[in-house]
Amino acid sequence: MSRESTLSRILVWDAAVRIFHWFMVLSFAGAYLTAESERWRLVHVTLGYTMAGLITFRLAWGVIGTRHARFRNFVRGPQAVMRYVRTLRAGDPAHFTGHNPAGAVAIVLMLLAGAVISVTGWASYNEVGGEWLSELHELAATAMILVIGVHIAGVIVASRMHNENLVRSMVTGFKLGEHRERVSWSWWPLALLIVVSVLGFWWLQWQSA
Q1: Residue 108's pLDDT band (cuts 50, 70, 90)
Q2: Full-prediction pTM beyond 0.90?
Q3: Long-range pairs for 59-64: beta carbons < 8 A, 24 or more residues apart
């Protein structure tokens, strides 16, 4: 029996990972679009702080989180990444229940870029350091845009090759995989806590405006 014949629809992404993902999308997009506007400066800063909090959560969840959220289960070395890229070029990519090796590189790079953006943004806003921090802030944001573009392209390619909607899986949490690889609990209470924390922070920022 082939591995493909044993795959079924299982829960892979817990609710906390999914909420983190979409809040990060919203926060970065909003911060990027308001970066040059003094009128929307508070929105830009608020979304930057939100990104910092989300990244802090994701780093912790990458250590203690559910199976497919943990870094040690999807971050792989250069050789594994190159092997996966070669299977993509051959038109027969290996199937990974969680993040594939190429996707893992993009995720790590986005977290690193997001961390640099957050730290340099805070320093620039509070006039700590010098002009070089503002330049590094802009450079990191540009790097993030590039990585996001590659990431989106990779998601589209992998979705078509595997005949699996990877964007939808980050909404529903379900992907194809073996039953033993499933996540047993979605962690909705934690996801709800993230939502309440983010919305509460935004409300406090609005009240102090």
Answers
A1: very high
A2: yes
A3: 59/111, 61/16, 61/17, 61/20
